[in-house]
Amino acid sequence: MGLDLHQLRHSAATHLGEAEIPLQLIMGKTRHKNPRIARRYVRPGAEAIAKVTKCWRPAAVTTD
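and the corresponding structure tokens:
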């Protein structure tokens, strides 16, 4: 079973989003005119979520 063009477009938008490409450039590549629609395709994967979590996690508190 192969991928159709819609699935390839979705996959490309996801990979571009994970590469931290700005939404405006993703929209240009996928030819979306509405940012709300384009954001539907940009789904962060586990690695991207882990990266953000690491940035938000407060430094470990040590008790002496």
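(Above: one complete record from the training split.) The CA atoms of residues 17 and 42 lie 6 Å apart.
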